[in-house]
Amino acid sequence: MAALISALRRAVQWLDHRMGMSALLPIVRKKKVPLHRHTVWYYMGGMLVFLFLLQVGTGVLLLFYYRPSADGAFESVQFLMAEVEFGWLIRSIHSWGANLMVLVAFIHMFSVLILKAYRPPRELTWMTGAALLGVCMGLGFTGYLLPWNELAFFATRVGTEIPGVLPVVGDFIRTLLRGGEDVTGATLTRFYALHVSVLPATLFMLMALHVLLVQRHGMSVPPSVERAGGARRSMPFLPNFVLRDLVGWLCALIILAAVAAFFPAHLGVKADPFAPAPEGIKPEWYFMFMFQTLKYLPAHILGVEGELVGILAFGVAGLVLFLIPFLDRKAARGEPGSGWSWVAFGALVYILVLTALGYLANPSA
Amino acid sequence: MSHAPDDRIPRAQADPGAGPPRGPEGDGGLPGDTLSRKRFVDVLLGASFGGFTLAVAYPVTRYLIPPENVEASVSAVVLSLKPDDIAPNSGVIFRFGDKPGILLRTPGGEFRAFSARCTHLDCTVQYREDLSHIWCACHNGHFDLNGRNIAGPPPEPLEAFDVNTRGDQIIVSRRT
């Protein structure tokens, strides 16, 4: 045993002489996490890293059986669910994990937004974070189509038509997304390429930049805690915070495994381009508030097509969200009581109410 | 041997007749307004870089734009349905080329056909027997039996087709 340990130590030394990783150790040891009543929100970022790695792992496994074609996609997923041992488990964890990842990303974003962690010098951290949320939703949207079922088919028809209503560039963007005029097998291969390579690679690079910026500036202490004064308490990142992170990750994995076992992802009916859109069609829940808004808008608002107004409004809202570190001047100066907290709160309430309506309102009323 | 700034040595060797000492702001250019060697290399490298970027970006962009659909748009189709297959107050989706169309029979027994693509966001519409008109499930759009958008978000009517019955055949054609 002792011989084994000393051999291991020598191996680590050998590696360290060549890689110099031990230079990082003092930096990691020095890192501290502030302790106050909002500390719990600091765990969301690490949770997202874990969920991303889980999606990569399960996603790679799914690639072993998936066939990206209009003729074969649905059947290959069916085969995976019915014949492949634990195929249902891998796909269900991937599907539920994606939902959890978007949910945690939203929680992460709103906690940062409401606690104003985007104040200088963390503007870029916020902007990379907002971009990461966009990439996450893009991954959700492209992944949704891959099983090539009826719901996904129409969700993609609607989703790719949305940029199509934009003046001038709309048609071009829609054709580029769909790989043609309509949603066909060409759309499927495009979404497949985006989902398994372009978007994960983008997410990985943005995430690396985001984490690097968090390391550079340290964790933001909320203004309310800063103003309250008093002794600053903190805990070491290593091992205290990392161990708590690990517990959180383990809990997430257990919850996902349980949900996957009790509510396996379903597959539905194969997409048929010549069937009417089914009653009660819905997008993924995180697009629901936008979907429901488009349902309520009248055909024309002040002579402009209603959907164009809605889409532009969401575009502007997204831009405001992205640029909020530069818009919230009061918070940047460290002054209390900027109205942006109320805007953030209002946006949260709007999203929650419209999402609830999407699930509760009668689809044909 | 002491190190002078890199760009001085070769230039001094290469320009034996360079004349008066260079001013502090001079970047080592030749006298007069002749392009300096450093500037020339900068421009050359910059242009090469720009050219290279374009040479990569152009084919990639063209690659990503899908080729035009060569299939000519259809002007008329003969359905595989017989008039008796469709009861009054019902509708079916049919293929109009590579696009869906909807054939319906009014409660009065008349045949009508429209493009089945909702003018709102491109979902496929259906005939609602309980409402006796056309409905889109995606965003709750309603169209009357003439294809006019009567409720919900659709901004325009459905494109109407002509329906002709010849014996047992139903022929749907685009309006000219």
What do you see in this structure?
The complex is a heterodimer of chains A (365) and B (176). Chain A has 365 residues and is mainly alpha-helical. Chain A has helices at 2-19, 25-30, 43-63, 73-82, 87-114, 123-145, 150-164, 170-178, 185-217, 223-228, 237-262, 288-296, 306-327, 329-332, 340-360; strands at 32-35, 233-236, 300-301, 304-305. In chain A, helix 3 (43-63) runs antiparallel to helix 5 (87-114), helix 6 runs antiparallel to helix 13 and helix 12 (288-296) crosses helix 15. The mean pLDDT of chain A is 91. Chain B contains two helices and ten strands, in the order H-H-E-E-E-E-E-E-E-E-E-E. The longest helix of chain B is centred in the N-terminal third of the chain and has 28 residues, at 37-64. Chain B is elongated, with a radius of gyration of 36 Å. Classes of the chains: A mainly alpha (365), B alpha+beta (176). Chains A and B meet through helix 7, helix 8 and helix 12 of A and strand 2 and strand 3 of B.
Share of helical residues of chain B: 10-25%
β-strand percent of chain B reads 25-35%
- What does the oligomeric state look like here? heterodimer
Q: What average pLDDT do the residues of chain B reach?
A: 81
Distance between the termini of chain B: 88 Å
Output the radius of gyration of chain A.
Answer: 23 Å
Residue stretches of chain A low in confidence (pLDDT < 50, at least 5 long) are: none
C-alpha termini separation of chain A = 73 Å
What would you call the shape of chain A? globular
DSSP E strands of chain B, number: 10
| Greatest chain-chain contact | A-B, 37 and 32 residues
Instruction: Give the DSSP E fraction of chain A (strand runs of 2 or more residues).
Output: under 5%
| DSSP strand tally of chain A | 4
Radius of gyration of chain B: 36 Å
Structural class designation of chain A: mainly alpha
Number of helices of chain A: 15
Give the uncertain stretches of chain B in residue-range form: 1-14
Order of helices and strands of chain B: HHEEEEEEEEEE
Residue share in helices of chain A?
55-70%
> Biggest sheet of chain B: strands, sense, closure?
6 strands, antiparallel
